[in-house]
Amino acid sequence: MITIQTEQEDDFYIIKVIGEVDASSSIHLDNKIGEVIKSHKKILVDCHNLKYISSAGLGVFMSYINEMEESEIKMVLFALSQKVRNVFQILGLDQLINMVESKEEAKKLVNAV
Amino acid sequence: MARKLLQLRIFFATGFISWFVMTAMILVMSFARANQISHGLHEVLPDIFFILFFLSVFSFYKVRLGRSRDANLQELLWRIFVTGLIATIASLILSPIENLFVSHSRSGENPLVTNLIYNINVGLITAFFISTFIVWEKFIFYQKSKRLIITWRIFVYFLFATLFFTFFKLSIFDPYYLSILGIIFIGSVYFSANLKWVAYLNFKQKWKSILLFVLIIVYQFYFIHFMYINQADILIFNAIQNITIDSLFIFIFLYAFISVLVILFNLPTSSVFEKKLEEIINFQRLSQSRNTGKNEQEVYEILLESSISAVLADAAWLEKNQSKSGESSRLTYKIKEEDISGLTQIISKSKTKKIASSDPIKNLKSDRYIATLKNNRFKSVLVFPIFIQNEIVGSLILLKEISDGFNEEMINIIRTFVNQAAISIENFKLIDSALENERYIKELNIAKTVQRSLLPTHLDHSGFFDIVAYSKSADEVGGDYYDIYKVDENRTIVIIGDVSGKGTSAAFHMSQLKGIFHSLVQLNLSSREFMVYANKALAQGLDKNSFITASIYNIDRHSRTIEFCRAGHCPSLFLKKDSKEPTYFLGKGLGLGILRNNEFQEYVNNDRIKFNAGDLLILFTDGITEARNIQGKEFGYDRLKKLVLKNADNSPEGMKNEIIGALYDHCESKAPDDDYTLIIIKFSKKI
């Protein structure tokens, strides 16, 4: 089960991922990110309420890495639980995707890069 | 059949013999009377033989016609007509023969010949009347009721009883005689009301029946006339004075007469009845289409065809919205494709009247309506959408050249047709999807067989360690992979991998990985080089969203080192002998297929660890550590660590059983929802 909420703060587009991202619910996340990157350059993903992510969910983030780099889109994940962060770390995605503790840090990071 | 044939033969024989004896007696009596000599025969004897004859003929026809269930009423009527025709022709041929004899006799009369010919006629009349009577009985019983059967039985017994009245030799004008005929008359009128079969005849059959009935009545009158004009004084057996024959005549005539009248009155309504019958048949065609092997297209065709004939539409078309392919198609009747779009516009602009829906799908925006068109060849139109599972799959448009061409009843029948067609089509879809599901399961089973064959059945390795492996997939097909390659007596390479996702595509990628492993392992590469090449090879074949995690271990006895590389795979566990602290190999690493360019090599390491006798290396996939129970709690890395420590002195097989057992206890009734693999390597005490 997954709920995706979106909001805009200045020129930041924030995607709130609530619940669990597994093989079936990852499709919603995929669609949302795919839609957002068409029109926004600064994307923040709020993982505060992300309880669990499966390899299919990781696959979604992974699949946009190249595309974002090419179109100079900045995406930062913030407020990940230790468990979720671990999953990213084991796969090595933490080396390719920016992850920070808070929204403020995330905004700072997006603007800095 | 054989029994029926025997019965027919017996009745025919007794009938013929009794008629023959009767005729012979009459001839003797007639001869005696003419010559005024005594014949020594009792007066009632011919009557007794007539009764015997009558009953035989009755039984004969009862057996012959009574059980022929398959014969329809029209056929029976035709048979009676033929019987009557033959009897009449026979009688007509006999009459000049009689005249010939009579005119040549001196006295102007020849009682012997007259009586003979008359008696032959009596035989023919009896046979004709009785056969007609039996057929009329079948007509009356077209729709049986218990009361009808009982009253009819009484009527028939009463008719048999009249046979014995001949003994009283009553005159035709005797009150008793007349009152019996009166009773028969009333009974005949009563049974003549049973004409339900008339309704089931179509227009043509009705005309044919009228013709046959009229001809049968003509024959009857011919015979009655024949009997009446004969010289009663010289006849020994006078049929006109036989109350049973009179009764039979009254009944068969009345029934035939009333039938003709009723059919005549029913002629104008027969087209309505035919139409109703056609509608029922069409309805049946729609509902039985699945059983008769028709497809969806044919159901639409039947729907269009049935609807046109039900409302007598001048033109029509059926629009099908095909949601899957996005294109729509239509079936047309007496209307050109190019006229349809124009008409659709006219219809949408014209005044429409919605039809109230009485169906369960009330909440839907019901678009069924009648429209009246102006300035067009068609004056009225009926539009009916076809719903399947609350979704409009098409619509039926019926057109008429007259205004207000659709009445309430027509709308009702169209509603029924459309609903039934929708049910049929829905059934098609349900069955199709069930079949597809079955096909999918079959495919999965094939994939499962293939996938099983990808995992090694025999762990061939250098003899300085023990190894056990256990792998199980959640779906029919898994994405976990492990393999082992013995380079020589001193070196063995072990790989473990996990393809993201589950099912068929995961298994497909897993087979790619196996191919890559078996090619690259020959090249004597370092573990890191292996992963870099593997990533390059996989970059071409993996789905956009897919990646593979893997760890490779190059175990060397001489240097007592394990050289390894972790490509995003969950860290393996290493326990030194006599140590209390197992460690996870969590170093730098990145899954295969995540970066599909040269940058990948920056993210993977070549690591090394020394091993000694009795050390343990445990490889696994995240299906074990991430296995969640109903509460959502994961099995976890710590739990695994503790189990390994606890079973450090156990055999690898024993340790495996303990870990898998604990995993199942953790998941309780719920089966693990991911694939999981566990490999335990224990170095021998003496290396």
What attributes does this structure have?
heterodimer, A: 113 residues, alpha/beta, six-stranded mixed sheet, 4 helices, B: 687 residues, six-stranded antiparallel sheet, 17 helices
Walk me through the structure.
The complex is a heterodimer of chains A (113) and B (687). Chain A has four helices and six strands; from the N terminus they run ββαββαβαβα. By secondary structure, chain A is of the alpha/beta class. In chain A, α1 runs parallel beside α2. Chain A is globular and about 30 Å long. Chain A starts with a strand and ends with a helix. In chain B, the strands form three sheets. Chain B has a six-stranded antiparallel sheet with strand order 2-1-6-5-4-3, sandwiched between helices. A five-stranded antiparallel sheet of chain B has the order 7-16-15-12-13. Chain B has a five-stranded antiparallel sheet with strand order 8-9-10-11-14, covered by helices on one side. In chain B, a hairpin with a 7-residue loop joins β4 and β5. The two termini of chain B are 96 Å apart.
Report, as a whole number of angstroms, the end-to-end distance of chain A. 34 Å
Number of helices of chain B: 17
Number of strands of chain A: 6
- Quote the beta fraction of chain A: 25-35%
Query: What coarse outline of chain A follows from CA principal-axis ratios?
Result: globular
| Sheet of most strands of chain B | 6 strands, antiparallel
Q: Describe the oligomeric state of these chains in a short phrase.
A: heterodimer
Q: How many β-strands of chain B, per DSSP? A: 16
Which regions of chain B contain 5 or more consecutive residues with pLDDT less than 50?
A: 360-365
Structural class of chain B, please?
A: alpha+beta
Shape of chain B: elongated
Can you list the strand order of the major beta sheet of chain B? Answer: 2-1-6-5-4-3
Rg of chain B, Cα atoms, Å: 50 Å
Largest sheet of chain A: 6 strands, mixed
> What structural class do the secondary elements of chain A suggest?
alpha/beta
Our count of helices of chain A gives 4
Taking all Cα atoms into account, the compactness measure Rg of chain A is: 13 Å
